[in-house]
Amino acid sequence: MVKSKLIFIVVMTLSLSGCATIMNGTAQKVMITSNPDGANVTVDEKAAYTTPVKVRLERRRDHTLVIAKDGYSKETVNLTHVLSEAVCGNILLGGIVGWIFDIFGGTQYKLMPNKVHVELKRAGG
Q1: Which domain holds residue 85?
Q2: Residues 107, 59: contact at Cβ < 8 Å?
Q3: CATH no. for residue 55?
Q4: Does 41 map to a domain?
Q5: Is 0.85 surpassed by the pTM of this model?
Q6: Is residue 45 part of a domain?
Q7: Taking 80 as the threshold, does the pLDDT of residue 24 lie above it?
Q8: Residues 40-86: pLDDT tens digits?
Q9: At what angle do helices 96-105 and 2-16 cross, to 10 degrees?
C-alpha cells in the first residue's frame, strides 16, 4: 500500500511539472567563440565576457551579443527564443497542466543559434 502511494505521488509530481521544465530548465548554456580568441562579449548591454566562453542565458527572451576586439570591426549576433521540441511531449501526452508550467517558467523555449562563432574582420581592411 505504501509503495503504491509513493508511485502515485511520483507520477502526479511529474505530471504537474512541465516536460520542458524537466528537460531544459529556465536557462540555456550558449558557447561563444571568435577568431581571434580574446574578444570581448557584451550580452544585452550588461554582462561582459571574453571568448571563448560558455554563458548561461534566460530562455524566455531574445538576447543581443556584441563581440569586439581592438583592431577589429565589432559584430552583433541576435539570439532568438523559439518554441522547443520538448513542448510537443506535453501536447502529445496530454500534459496541458505541464505546458502551463512551461509557459510561465519560460522553459518552453530554446535559444537559436545555440552556438555562436564569429570571424572578426580587421578594422579598415
Answers
A1: 18-119
A2: yes
A3: 2.60.40
A4: yes
A5: no
A6: yes
A7: no
A8: 999 999 989 999 999 999 988 999 999 999 999 999 999 999 887 76
A9: 50
Cα Rg, the chain, nearest whole Å: 20
Q: Give the CB-side neighbour count of residue 111, counting CA atoms within 13 A.
A: 25
- Convert the chain into a string of H (helix), E (strand) and C (coil): CHHHHHHHHHHHHHHHCCHHHHHCCCEEEEEEEEECCCCEEEECCCEEEECCEEEEEECCCCEEEEEECCCECCEEEEEEEEECCHHHHHHHCCCHHHHHHHHHHCCCEEEECCEEEEECCECCC
Residue 4 within any structural domain of the chain: no
With respect to residue 3, please indicate whether it lies within any of the assigned structural domains.
no
